[in-house]
Specification:
Helix 1 crosses helix 6 and helix 6 packs across helix 7. This protein has 179 residues and is α+β, with helices and mostly antiparallel strands.
Amino acid sequence: MNGDGPRPAGSFSAWVTDMRAALRGDRDMDVPCEGCTACCTSSQFVHVAPDEADTLAHIPRRLLFPAPGMPRGHLLLGYDEHGQCPMLIDGRCSIYEHRPRTCRTYDCRIFAATGIDIDEDDDTKVGVGARAREWRFDYSTDRDRVLHDAVHAAVGFVRDRDKNATESAVLAIRLVGDQ
């Protein structure tokens, strides 16, 4: 993250289509991180499902613990005393090709898309919030504008249900559907 100002986030409608596919488990997100590790250094717990055998084979067992409230076999990868993912070594993901599904589908542009300020919920996520505020979507078609308005309406509905910023953003994108 370099704070150089606005970053092109791409077509809004194309992004929403891709994000919905990622949330369904149909694809990974292709985020132009350009060396940003804000999500890896923001004290986030990373869910690892029991079907992620390849991922589990690459994470030392001592770094995983049972995910509260989830069925047996669901695990969480914690973070170190600095809020950093323990798999982040020298500023790079040491298991990138084998990273958890949660990491493969994470995209901080969701906060720019929904207008949700992640910093409002948790000051450990300041870096993610700063990066999210840099993204600028392209609204070159009428579909982009309509979809953006629908996402913002969904956020208004969702935020009234006492969800955190990430849950609200994801739920808003899921609610919108394909326009």
